[in-house]
UniProtKB/TrEMBL annotation:
<dbReference type="InterPro" id="IPR004623">
    <property type="entry name" value="KdpA"/>
</dbReference>
<dbReference type="GO" id="GO:0008556">
    <property type="term" value="F:P-type potassium transmembrane transporter activity"/>
</dbReference>
<dbReference type="Pfam" id="PF03814">
    <property type="entry name" value="KdpA"/>
</dbReference>
<protein>
    <submittedName>
        <fullName>Uncharacterized protein</fullName>
    </submittedName>
</protein>
């Protein structure tokens, strides 16, 4: 019984820690700041925009 409770608590702690990290990362992405994946993903994103034929790098829907 104690083993099950320990596993659940450990799972919840890891889940909260990952949630906070993802929250900070997503906030930077949505604000347009550079993140550690920017050098890798920006060229791919630009290529996709080129393939679909859009002229604007940043698309604003609001």
């Amino acid at each position: 019984m104690i083993n099950i409770v320990t596993q659940i608590l450990l799972y919840l702690i890891v889940l909260v820690m990952l949630g906070k990290s993802l929250d900070k990362y997503m906030a930077k992405v949505y604000e347009g700041d550079k993140v550690f994946l920017s050098p890798v993903l920006n060229p791919i994103e630009k290529l996709i925009y080129k393939i679909i034929g859009t002229n604007n790098y940043r698309l604003f829907f609001l």
